[in-house]
Amino acid sequence: MRKITTAIIIFLAIHLYASAQDQRALTTKIADVLATMPAQDKQQLNKSMEEISSLDENGIVEMLGMFSAQGSGNNTALEYAIGGYSSYVMQPGKEQQRQMAVRAYCASLDKLPGNKSKQFIIQQLQDIGRDDAVPCLEKYLHDEQLAGPAARALAQIGTPASEKVLLSALSTTKDSVQLSLVEALGYARYKPSVSSLTLLAKTEKQDLRKVVLYTLARIGDPSSASLLQSAVQNTGYTVDHTEALAAYLLFLHQLAANGNRAAESAATKLLNDASAAGQVQTKIAALQLLVDIQK
Question: Which of 64, 119, 283, 295 could form a disulfide with 108 if both were Cys (CB 3.0 to 4.6 A apart)?
Fold first, then answer.
């Protein structure tokens, strides 16, 4: 029994020693890579990116764990390394490395110190993420500080899954977070969001109404025509805080670009209504729109 116990102790000691050696080797590899940042030339950069790939997922997580909280350290070399690696994995033939990077970035997000480092990694996921990045970004859509970056990242990813997540979160958020989601839906031109946005356009909050009108205009769904036209009519065909006129002009441009012939008749009506209201600047804008449509 004593011999068995001694053997177990020796085995554990060897295992712990080996683990410590591996950890020191990993730390050394990471330090060596960071020492080359920023890279002096393309050859050095490629070599450093290959070194990061050789760290594997756990090694990249370890490297991300070196981020310092804002004001308590210098993250410049680390940001150069991670930013460079994000570009590297988007090269043709690097799909496995891209997937590994997404897993590592997502695994690290919650543990990063402070919002600045989290925003930086969310930006990386925006650049390299696909559906594999959606679940970890979705968690931040209710965070007042990080909802904006997360929503933009999901909009940029632009897959049905990422856009559906944005719309799903819209009804359960408010204030600045809701504004970020509306903006993201506009960037994505997500047509399934039109009915929800139409309801939201009834809000008394002018800042929110302004963003909703712009988003509906950018999406350019013909069903939004009467809402946007009424919004302009309610302003007296002039510029107000909601910028309804600018939104309507953008909407008509979108209709025309999509080959919808209703854009010309709507622009003509806007020209006539602006003339009747004595709004010269709006009349000029409508006339220019007609010229652009008829080109």
Answer: 64
Contact 270, 248 (CB under 8 A): yes
């930006």: which residue's tokens? 123
The pLDDT-based confidence of 20 (bands split at 50, 70, 90) is very low
How many whole angstroms separate alpha carbon 10 and alpha carbon 189?
63
Residue whose C-alpha is closest to residue 250's, from 209, 208, 218, 210: 218
> Cα 275 from chain centroid?
42
Amino acid at 166: L
Note whether 254 and 218 are within 8 A (CB).
yes
Is the CB of residue 232 less than 8 Å from the CB of residue 245? yes
Q: First-to-last CA distance in the chain?
A: 94
Helix (H) or strand (E) holding 290: helix 280-294
pLDDT on residue 2: 53
Distance CA 53, CA 59 (A): 9
**CA distances, 19 to each of 22, 25, 53 (Å):** 5, 10, 20
- Verdict on whether the full-model pTM lies above 0.90: no
Q: Residue 143: exposed, middle, or buried by beta-carbon count in 10 A (0-12, 13-18, 19+)? A: middle
| Residue 6: pLDDT band with limits 50, 70, 90 | low
Q: Answer with the residue of higher pLDDT: 18 or 192.
A: 192
Q: Are residues 129 and 157 in contact, defined by beta-carbon separation less than 8 angstroms?
A: yes
Using DSSP's 3-state secondary structure scheme, residue 216 falls into: helix
Q: Are 252 and 289 in contact (CB under 8 A)?
A: yes
Judge whether residue 11 has pLDDT over 70.
Answer: no
